[in-house]
Amino acid sequence: MHTSTRVAGVLTGLTLALGATALTAPASHADIPACTQMAAQAGADANDAVTAACHRGVSGDLQGCVSGLTGAGVAGGAANGACRLAAHEPR
Fold it and tell me: Record's superkingdom (predicted)?
């Protein structure tokens, strides 16, 4: 009976850990709209290039994100801020 209690505890811990990962993973994608909105407020058209650049920010490629946004017409400071929003980096 002692072994079954341990197994139940391990399975419960594993379930909680995987559940927390599943809940936090989609949240990172929620900041793509914030990134594209900030880029639009800075004067860029909300197009596929802006969205692709924001996706790079979410994946952690801040330099690629900033380069993509500046190429789409977003000023450097605004592009940096938008990419940091996408990547959830503290300012």
Answer: Bacteria
